[in-house]
């Protein structure tokens, strides 16, 4: 892939260019998330000293007890918190869930299953279906993690070029689908496990027995994936298609560009056969799980026979990991990408290396979350914030809209979805729980706000990566090129997804198994 050309012409209007420049300068001043959470920990420690000295306290609505803010900046406080540091990290919920799920996902990914599935889905797509096909492929690509951009953006170019449309537009559609619609997905991935674990940590500051599961938004995200694919298709065909002539590739660049950057446009016969047999294996796995769950006294059920409140759903990360291990082994053996048993632990280790940066951030996040909880600042802010919202008397849906707009704005600067959720969940989840809002509902609202602005911020590494991809086909493409195409899609998705949630809320539909919206 060609390097990003700093001299590329930016076709954006001067006002937009200044706006983007301001965002980029502001964002560049933010520290790495690892250091950001240590800075926040220091601020929390200082705030705890001031608040404790002022004798601030509230009544915990969960227990009825009076809870005072306590400070870590005292001999006893520092001694107690220092004794908790190792435990804070080891018991941090997302650490275990992400690690367990990744063990299975890594085998399926390194065996080539996800890449082949993506290539199969986008091969020989009809001209009338190329936009929704690429959009759906992007929305379903979250298991590929960051490699989704490497695999699907070139494939989007190939799919569009095959039907006589601009490959540059195909790249843009793939990018906005991966980046903005990634949280609208019918499947459960490691990110969902991490989101749910962080929400559980936050919710238990109010209700110690509350558990948020990775499946708690599954119904909502499944419908959202279809809705957003339609929205992307509508905006692309009605708005971006009118500018498609400006996105045609340079003749020289198009002639010399390596199609798909070495990724074949369609899988071969052996891979297709392997995909079919792997599909049967996947179906068989879940049939066996369903059959094992049927007996009332099954160990996968709760002691009282419940299914939703059961080991199956409470420990879904384990079953997901085993699922991906099975499909990775089946596909790998059929395609010979898994040649021997020793390949499996090697793939797992490789997968864990890929999330090592996330684990490093988790160490900082776990200490911040633990201190925030230990000082009782979270409880204090949640109770006082909930009281203030009650006094305002604003309708619940208005509060939701304010939350979406605020988080969407923060997401322009803090582009890591998990880092931003770790920052806002300790406040938003308890505060809204005190207003009788289910944590699963707060998590769904966060998904809407987090996803839709990802494709318009130059602070995202995937954004800059995509600009580089565009320049392999169109040399003068720049930040303005990408923003001018993604902005209308992002705004349309934000509006449509918010409206979908409002309808969902008014109808009182469950967000997932055992997860009511209100």
Automatic annotation (TrEMBL):
Record bears the keyword Transmembrane: yes
Source organism (scientific name): Streptomyces inhibens
Lineage: Bacteria, Bacillati, Actinomycetota, Actinomycetes, Kitasatosporales
Annotated coiled-coil segments of the chain: none
Name of the protein: AbgT family transporter
Alphabetized GO MF terms: secondary active p-aminobenzoyl-glutamate transmembrane transporter activity
GO biological process, one term: p-aminobenzoyl-glutamate transmembrane transport
Membrane-spanning intervals of the chain: 35-56, 89-109, 121-140, 218-236, 277-295, 315-334, 355-372, 392-413, 420-438, 444-470, 482-507
Keywords: Membrane, Transmembrane, Transmembrane helix
InterPro entries the record matches: AbgT (IPR004697)
């Amino acid at each position: 892939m060609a390097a990003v050309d700093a001299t590329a012409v930016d076709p954006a209007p001067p006002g937009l260019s200044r706006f983007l420049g301001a965002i980029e300068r502001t964002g560049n001043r933010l520290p790495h998330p690892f250091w950001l959470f240590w800075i926040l920990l220091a601020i929390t420690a200082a705030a705890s000293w001031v608040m404790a000295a002022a004798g601030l306290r509230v009544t915990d609505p969960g227990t009825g007890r009076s809870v005072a803010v306590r400070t870590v900046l005292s001999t006893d406080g520092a001694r107690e918190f220092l004794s908790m540091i190792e435990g804070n990290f080891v018991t941090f919920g997302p650490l275990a869930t992400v690690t367990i799920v990744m063990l299975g996902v890594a085998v399926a990914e390194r065996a080539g299953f996800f890449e082949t599935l993506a290539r199969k889905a986008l091969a020989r797509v009809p001209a009338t279906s190329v936009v929704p096909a690429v959009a759906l492929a992007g929305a379903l690509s979250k298991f590929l993690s960051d490699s989704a951009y490497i695999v699907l953006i070139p494939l989007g170019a190939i799919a569009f070029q095959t039907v006589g449309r601009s490959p540059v537009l195909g790249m843009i559609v793939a990018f906005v689908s991966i980046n903005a619609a990634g949280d609208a997905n019918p499947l459960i991935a490691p990110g969902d496990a991490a989101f749910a674990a962080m929400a559980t940590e936050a919710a238990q500051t109010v209700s110690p027995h509350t558990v948020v599961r990775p499946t708690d938004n599954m119904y909502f995200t499944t419908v959202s994936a279809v809705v957003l694919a339609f929205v992307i298709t509508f905006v692309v065909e009605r708005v971006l298609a009118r500018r498609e002539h400006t996105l045609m590739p340079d003749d020289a660049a198009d002639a010399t560009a390596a199609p798909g950057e070495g990724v074949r446009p369609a899988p071969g016969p052996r891979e297709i056969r392997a995909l079919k047999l792997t599909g049967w294996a996947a179906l068989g796995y879940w049939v066996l799980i369903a059959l094992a769950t049927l007996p009332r006294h099954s160990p996968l059920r709760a002691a009282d026979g419940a299914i939703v409140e059961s080991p199956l759903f409470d420990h879904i990360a384990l079953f997901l990991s085993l699922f991906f291990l099975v499909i990775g082994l089946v596909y790998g053996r059929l395609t010979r990408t898994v040649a021997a048993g020793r390949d499996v632990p090697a793939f797992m280790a490789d997968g864990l290396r890929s999330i090592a940066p996330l684990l490093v951030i988790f160490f900082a996040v776990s200490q911040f979350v633990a201190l925030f909880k230990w000082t009782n600042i979270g409880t204090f802010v949640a109770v006082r914030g909930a009281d203030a919202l009650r006094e305002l008397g604003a309708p619940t849906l208005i509060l939701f809209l304010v939350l979406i707009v605020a988080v969407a704005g923060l997401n322009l600067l803090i582009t890591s979805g998990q880092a931003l959720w770790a920052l806002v969940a300790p406040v938003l989840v308890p505060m809204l729980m005190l207003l009788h809002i289910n944590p699963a509902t707060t998590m769904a609202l966060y998904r809407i706000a987090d996803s839709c602005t990802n494709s318009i911020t130059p602070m995202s590494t995937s954004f800059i990566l995509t600009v580089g991809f565009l320049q392999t086909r169109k040399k003068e493409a720049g930040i303005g090129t990408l923003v001018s195409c993604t902005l209308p899609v992002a705004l349309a998705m934000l509006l449509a997804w918010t409206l979908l949630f409002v309808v969902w809320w008014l109808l009182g539909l469950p967000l997932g198994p055992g997860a009511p919206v209100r």
